[in-house]
Automatic annotation (TrEMBL):
This is Trans-2,3-dihydro-3-hydroxyanthranilate isomerase. One of its GO terms (molecular function) is trans-2,3-dihydro-3-hydroxy-anthranilate isomerase activity. Its EC number is 5.3.3.17. Keywords: Isomerase. InterPro entries: Phenazine_PhzF-like. It comes from Shimia marina. Gene3D superfamilies: Diaminopimelate Epimerase, Chain A, domain 1. Pfam families: PhzC-PhzF.
Length: 133
């Protein structure tokens, strides 16, 4: 496990399978994350390049987390899972019945990551309006 930031500080939790059974069961996860300098946790299957992300109380799961995708790109390059400039697809949302694919491309070297690009398509699901007083 490692804390990585590309803007937001994530604890990347690499796993070898088992994402379907994953749940957050730690009642004070946010405090524990803060104690190690992280804001969020992201489970990342290093073989299937699939991830899962919940809010820190474990109630709401995200179908596609762009901020975490950048962090996973940095992690993958740093640990030799991909080569510099090599795009990969990060899958997420499958276990919610709303699969997504985020295209991630890290640049630089394993010990000097320059940047990570994150791309993908979105589906419009609705709009709203906020009226301020």
């Amino acid at each position: 496990m490692e804390v990585i930031s590309t803007g937001l500080k994530y604890l990347v939790v690499p796993v070898d399978g088992g994402l379907a059974e994953a749940r957050i069961t730690v009642p004070d996860l946010e405090d524990r994350l803060k104690s190690i300098g992280a804001e969020f946790a992201y489970l990342f299957d290093i073989n299937s390049f699939e991830g899962r992300h919940w809010n820190n109380d474990g109630i709401m799961e995200d179908v596609a987390t762009g901020s975490a995708a950048g962090v996973v790109g940095a992690y993958a390059l740093k640990h030799g899972l991909v080569k510099p400039g090599e795009a990969f697809v990060l899958k997420q949302g499958h276990f919610m019945g709303r699969p997504s694919e985020i295209i991630v491309t890290p640049f630089g070297a394993q010990d000097d990551i320059e940047r990570v690009t994150v791309a993908g398509e979105v589906a419009f699901v609705g709009k709203g309006q906020v009226i301020a007083p």
